Each structure stands twice: as structure tokens, then as C-alpha cells.
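Hi X.,

You mentioned you wanted examples for the new student's onboarding notes, showing what a folding record looks like when two proteins sit in one file. Here is a clean example. The first protein comes first, with its sequence line followed by its C-alpha cells.
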Amino acid sequence: MVAAFSRRSALRAAAAGAVAVPAVAYGGGSEAAAAERGRGRGLRVMTFNLRYASDSRPNSWAERRPVMRSLLRREAPQLLGTQEGLYGQLRDIAEDLGPRYDWVGTGRGGGSRDEFAAIFYDARRLAPVEYDHFWLSDTPYLIGSATWGNTVIRMATWVRFRDLRTGGEFYACNTHLDHAHQYSRERSATLILERLGALEPALPRIVTGDFNVAAHKNPVYEAMLGGGTLVDSWDTAEERSPQYATFHGYRPLVPDGDRIDWILTSAGVRTRRATINTFSQHGQFPSDHLPVQALLDW
């Protein structure tokens, strides 16, 4: 197994003492989050491109972190696939989520270097059974490899979880496809499906990620769903929030815009609700992407 980092914050006093600032703009509804928490076995899942930590203003990590903390504490995802997080930034998030959370990930350049495709989980609900990482290249177990024309290293992390509430198990896979090279994205989609296909076939799959292409508008989307084993939770959801473009770049939100951040599931997984969350505080968004959420059951 490739080397990985899994850290639970020891700064419990600091996390307990952090104060959330009242939100002045919110879409996706804390009412929905409260209702979901009361629905028993449903699993609250989120995918979120965090926007890597930067000291440059506006939208520095110091400005964004309190908003991120408020959002995550409010929504309390039990499974959170993140993209672009730097090691120090992920440690901040672990501290802000509190001691009941843990995470699995490794830097795409190896160890703590570069960005992660880290997976956070609520340890009261989920227990990792096994995990691994692979790089989106012709040499997927060569750390830091990139062979499909992309200059940015891309990777995926997967975890086999046991649900402590139900006793069942499932796989979670989290990734971030290339932003510039369609060939790399298409090859990456094929590789991800191959790797998922090699896992225990009877167990459900949840795939989270920033795919850098619009749902329903690109061959990558068709490839990910084409085999019939995965479905788009947004499309299959029994209830949905309003749709917005999930990348906003700190500009005005775009209603009915492109979804480039997806939660895909096995066809047998039930999506009770899907949400694109527009949470902000005093005009500050936690990231240049909107988090996508789903309440899942099977």
C-alpha cells in the first residue's frame, strides 16, 4: 500500500473554543441538514473543492477558514471528499471539524507535498477497513506520475468503510481530474472505472470529485456513467435544491449553471436529497467552488 497520511486533530480545546459567525447568505437550507440528521441510517455525503490555501487577498485561507468551519459544522457531513487541500489546510479543517472526525489522504507529489484528494469521515459512523491511492497515469502506482499530457499531477484515493450504524460496507473514491487536457480526463475516467471494477463487486460505491467538465456535456461524464454501474446522484435524487454552477470563482452565482463537481453512486444506492450549497458569510465564500451534498441510503 502506498504511504498515506491519516490525522485526527489533537487541538480539541482550540476547536471547541472556535466561534461561528452568523451567516448572512445561505442556500441549501440548514433546515434540510437538520432534517437529514434525524433520518436514521441515511449517510450525509459532501464533495468539496476547497481551493488551496493561499495568503493572497482577497479570498485568502485566513479569510475563508472561518466560513469553511461554519459550513462544515452546520452540515456535518459524515463522508467528505475534498480536492485541492494542502496539508496544513487539511489539518486546519480536521481541527475545525473536531475530534470525532478523521481523514485519509496523501499528497499528489508524495507524502505531505502538493495538493491532496483527502477523504474525511465521521468516526462515530464510519470505520476504514482498507484504503489505497493511485495516480491518474499509465503507471498508477508510481507516486507523482503523469503520462497523459497533463502537467499537473492527478490522483485518486479510495477507502473501504464499514458503516457502524448498519454493519454494512461500501467503497468511497475521491478524485480531481485535470483542468486543461481532455485526453487526460478521458483516460482518467477509464482508469477510475477499472480500479473500481477490481474491488469487491457486491459492495456499493460512492465516487466524489471535481471532474472539471460539465455533467451531461462531455464524454467524461458519459464514460463514468456509461457502463451502468454508476449513476449521478443529482439526477436520481428524490429531492433537489436549486441548481447553480458549482464553480463560481468568487463571482456572482449562475443559476442552472454547469455542475463540474459530482457525487456518483452505484445504481442501487438511493439518493434522498441532493443539494448545491451556496453558504457564505458577509459576502465571503469558503471556496471558489460550491459544495455538493447528497443524503444516501441503501
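Then the second protein repeats the pattern, sequence line and then C-alpha cells:
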Amino acid sequence: MIGLNTAGIYIIQTVGSLYLLIVLLRFVLQLVRADFYNPLSQFAVRATQPLLKPIRRIVPSLFGLDMSSLLLAIVIQLIVMGLTLLLAYGTTGNPLQLLIWSIIGVTALFLKIFFYALIISVILSWVAPGSHNPGAELVNQICEPALAPFRRILPNLGGLDISPILAFMVLKLLDMLVINNLAAMTLMPSILRMLI
């Protein structure tokens, strides 16, 4: 029975995390005003539309942001964490605490999207500068709002762009100071870290 529970947890976390990533990526793409006609943007829209369409009727946009995508991401995270805890420990625990964990998990994933997009952007700048691949263009569109403030304050270093280094540092500090402190304030931070 333990083996089946472990397999169930693996499947739930893998499928749930993948869909959560797509939903949150849709929110990020709208946040950074990425090209809607990019094939990867179209994939994110088509993959999330069936669940987002009914939520959009209830949850309005706020400041031009699709809050229904954010709400769906929190609900998916809550379901994944609840099912994982249920299979691992036989209970989902306190619903309010589970909601807080879900918000922390979505926030951590939000930061990770920018972190990994920056890594991909740096690698692409070395191996395929100026690439017009849809994936490369989308990564650059995600990174540009995060890098623009640093580029404004840094002096021109003659073609050497060190703004990603500062962006990495800020993202890591946010993870250490915000996400880790929020996780530490919950009752079971080790379980939370396992789930996000």
C-alpha cells in the first residue's frame, strides 16, 4: 500500500506541477505583455482555457491582470498539496494553513519562472544571440521587465551586460528572505519545502 501511495504522490505532483506551471506561465506572459501570437503563448492559452473560462465569469481582471489565472494557480497548488498530504499522512490538515502554503508555493514558482528564464536568456545570449526562435523570443520577453530596472542604473560596460547577475541576486534574496521566512512561520516548513 505504501508503494501505491508513493506512486500516487509522484503522479499527482508531476501532473499537477506541470499544469500549475502552464497556468502561472499564462499569468506571467500577460504580466510582461508577451506576444500573444507566439506559438508557446497560444499553447498556454489553449491548455488553460477550459478551466479559466468559467472562473473568468466570476473573477474580474484587476489593473489589466487576469486574476482568474492567479486564482486557478492557487487552487491547483492547494489541490496538489492537499492530495499529497492525504496520501502521505492520511489527512489534509488545516484548510487555512493549506491555503497559506498554496499561496507560498505559487509565489515560489513565480520567482522560479523568472530565475530559470534568466538562466535560459543568458545561455541563449552566448550560443544564439539575436535568435528569432519563438521560445527564445518568449524568454527574452519574460526577462526584459526584470532586467530593465537594472539596465537603467548600471553604466554601459561596452557590450557586457551584468544586469542578469543583479537580477539573480534579487530573486535569490526574495526567495531567502520572503519565501523561506513565510515557510518558517508555518507549523511544518519541511513538509512545505517538499511540496513547493
